[in-house]
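Late entry, evening session. Most of the bench is empty. Finally got around to the prediction I had been postponing all week. Sequence below, unchanged from the version circulated by S.P.
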Amino acid sequence: MLFDLDDTLLNRDKAVDKMFLIISEKCYEDVKGSAKNEMLQKFKEYDNRSYGNGDKVKVLESFFDEFPPKYRLPRNYIQDFWNHTFPYCFSINQDTINIVNIIKKQVKVAIITNGSTQRQKAKIITSNLNSCFDKIIISEEVGFSKPDKRIFELALNQLNVLPEEALFVGDDIKKDIGGCQNANINGIWFNPHMIKNNTDIKPYDEINSFGRLLSYFT
């Protein structure tokens, strides 16, 4: 069983909330109430626009332009600040680890994630996921990113399993489910927010809670 990382195993939304709090404490004086909420929504908007792009300078520069801070991070420091701070904003639900460990007793498990090697490894270690998985494949490290079928094929080769023996679990209908299907792997769409599927991609199955994965092994 192969897993996506962000918004599948880890809750990226909560991590963005925490990152915003760190920035607001570091760069702004006492912001409260509706002003703080408006800033958070805008921060999420800028972050969302750059999702999948390793360069985070534009996110904070745009945010600072719209909400001038008391202390503005220097442009040449923003990327390092993001790389060293954001991974530690992640935490994992203990139930998720328990479910992965139950599955691992029966089949090989791996992570396939897009993103920068440094940040993704830091998230995985911070969340104690590094000990749970047989293989961890990060796009920057291997030179392919989802939905390219080659990143999925690489995982299969490393695990020594055939496409029809594997399942991939991910939240992104195009990159995760479309991508794994390009490699002839059945994709399980993790859709906790019950988003409508407006694509032509038909997942093998759709789940809205992680616990439902256990039904494949009983």
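Two things to note before I forget:
The mean pLDDT is 94.
The longest strand covers residues 186-190.
Will write this up properly tomorrow.
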